[in-house]
């Protein structure tokens, strides 16, 4: 670590001339933490290197995809072996069958699956399918959950929408569109039941992050997911688990395997692409057969199922399916890191709370437990920014906003975690 960020700063200035905010996704601008966004030169295993020659332990992993570490040899080889046959055909390939069969083997609720190019496309398409299948118009989401940037889901959403203390609703989304999006409180069944009462028979789908990770990590209370399953069954509403973060992360079968609750549909991104642009949605055959060209729900994509992206995703999922010790490793390091940070803030008597599960977690700068959007929002964003800057300058690439998750990969080691804990202890003066 030399701490210098001159090149990142000058590239940032140049980027801002041509790209809104200098970035192609707002979270990368580091607005919430008031420091220079790092421009990255390369990444390898558990490390990421910026253009000024600084090396960091990477706790973002491209926001989740790099569960095996950056530049995993098997994923890289699969891509290299594929590109020489062509980058994209816009026609069907055998690889798409391999991916579909693998996904249906690994994801408990998957009877059929459609590949798309991002988590946003996956959730947008899943909701359209649910509306087409039920003939209903309303969707129910939870405050603070983020499901990508399609219009109807940018209502009381999480992630970078709230990071800068901004509005959880986006400009440009019309009132007419937003009126079909109902919002409940995460972990509060009463708020769900009252909406089902009010809109009886007109709620097409409930979409939820089974572990919320876009208001920071917030775990479902005991029985909450089961109660959602029950109320959706009673009302013939489609239950959708947005597993873009939790999918293939909390277990090879995602949160639905870990919690033993089977949704009607699920959406994926990140890990399923191995670092390439891939999303997927799927679920019950009777719902998915509403999708064109079989059914009347239209959804399409020039690069959907792209052969190179499929090769990367198949390699990563196959490795995860065949090597369950990956989860033992990343979960043990998660316990060491997040449990260690919890110990540090307790010893420092700091107004902080740590939420974590497996290899994802968040340190909230609030003295109250965090179980929903309202309690998450009580966090002190200035304190988080100070902590972030200290950890970054100590060589730990942390989440550049309070309302994000951190990610541990199979490439991380105990000594990485120990170094990070030592850095955190120094920040809290213990
Ligand atoms: P993408 O369209 O970014 O591939 O996926 C959208 C999405 C959907 N569902 C969940 C649960 C998600 O977390 C995401 C995207 N996550 C953010 C991180 N909070 C991606 C990072 C970014 O926006 O730059």
Per-chain topology:
Blueprint: H1 6-18, E1 40-44, E2 47-50, E3 55-58, H2 73-83, H3 94-106, E4 112-116, H4 119-134, E5 138-142, H5 160-163, H6 175-178, E6 181-184, H7 189-198, E7 203-208, H8 224-235, E8 238-242, H9 254-259, E9 265-268, E10 279-283, H10 285-288, H11 307-322, H12 325-347, E11 353-357, E12 360-364, H13 373-376, H14 381-393, E13 396-397, E14 406-407, H15 414-428
The structure holds ligand KE4.
Ligand KE4 is lined by residues 25, 27, 63, 118-120, 123, 146-148, 159, 209, 213-214, 242, 244-245, 269, 279, 404.
Key terms:
38% helix; 4-stranded mixed β-sheet; Aspartate Aminotransferase, domain 1; alpha/beta; binds ligand KE4; single chain; Aspartate Aminotransferase, domain 2; 2 domains; 7-stranded mixed β-sheet
Full CATH superfamily name of the largest domain = Type I PLP-dependent aspartate aminotransferase-like (Major domain)
Instruction: Estimate nothing, just give the exact number of structural domains.
Output: 2
Mean pLDDT: 97
Strand portion: 5-15%
Summing up helix and strand content along with how strands pair, one would put the structural category as alpha/beta
- Order of SSEs: HEEEHHEHEHHEHEHEHEEHHHEEHHEEH
Radius of gyration, rounded? 21 Å
* Oligomer type: single chain
Question: Tally of extended strands?
Answer: 14
Q: Strand order within the widest sheet?
A: 4-10-9-8-7-5-6
Second-tier CATH architecture of the largest domain: 3-Layer(aba) Sandwich
Would you give the CATH topology of the largest domain? Answer: Aspartate Aminotransferase, domain 2
What's the CATH class of the largest domain, please? Alpha Beta
Query: Helix content range of the residues, please?
Result: 25-40%
């Amino acid at each position: 670590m030399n701490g210098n960020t001159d090149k990142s700063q000058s590239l940032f200035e140049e980027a801002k001339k041509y790209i809104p905010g200098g970035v192609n996704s707002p979270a990368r601008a580091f607005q919430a933490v008031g420091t220079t966004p790092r421009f990255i030169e390369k990444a390898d295993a558990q490390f990421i290197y910026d253009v000024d020659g600084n090396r960091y332990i990477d706790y973002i992993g491209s926001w989740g995809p790099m569960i095996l570490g950056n530049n995993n040899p098997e994923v890289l080889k699969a891509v290299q072996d594929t590109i020489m046959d062509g980058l994209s055909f816009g026609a069907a390939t055998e690889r798409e069958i391999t991916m579909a069969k693998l996904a249906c083997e690994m994801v408990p609720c998957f009877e059929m699956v459609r590949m798309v190019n991002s988590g946003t496309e996956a959730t947008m398409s899943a909701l359209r399918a649910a509306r087409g299948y039920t003939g209903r118009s309303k969707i129910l989401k939870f405050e603070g959950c983020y499901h990508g940037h399609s219009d109807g889901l940018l209502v009381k959403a999480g992630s970078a929408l709230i990071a800068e203390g901004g509005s959880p609703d986006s400009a440009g989304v019309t009132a007419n569109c937003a009126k079909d999006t109902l919002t409940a409180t995460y972990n509060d069944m009463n708020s769900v039941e009252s909406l089902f009462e009010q809109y009886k028979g007109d709620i097409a789908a409930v979409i939820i992050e089974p572990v919320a990770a876009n208001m920071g990590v917030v775990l479902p209370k005991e029985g909450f997911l089961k109660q959602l399953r029950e109320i959706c069954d009673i009302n013939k509403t489609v239950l959708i688990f947005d597993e873009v973060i939790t999918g293939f992360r909390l277990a090879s079968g995602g949160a639905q395997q870990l919690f033993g609750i089977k949704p009607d549909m699920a959406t994926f991104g990140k890990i399923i692409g191995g670092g390439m642009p891939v999303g997927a949605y799927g679920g019950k055959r009777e719902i998915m057969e509403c999708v064109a060209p079989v059914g009347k729900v239209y959804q399409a994509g020039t690069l959907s199922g792209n052969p190179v992206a499929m090769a990367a995703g198949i390699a990563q999922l196959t490795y995860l399916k065949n090597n369950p010790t990956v989860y033992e490793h990343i979960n043990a390091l998660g316990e060491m890191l997040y449990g260690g940070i919890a110990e540090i803030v307790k010893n420092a008597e700091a107004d902080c709370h740590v939420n974590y599960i497996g290899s994802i977690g968040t340190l909230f700068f609030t003295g109250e437990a965090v179980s929903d959007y309202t309690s998450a929002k009580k966090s002190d964003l200035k304190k988080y920014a100070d902590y972030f800057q200290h950890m970054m300058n100590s060589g730990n690439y942390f989440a550049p906003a309070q309302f994000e998750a951190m990610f541990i990969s199979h490439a991380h080691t105990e000594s990485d975690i120990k170094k990070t804990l030592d850095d955190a202890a120094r920040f809290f003066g213990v």
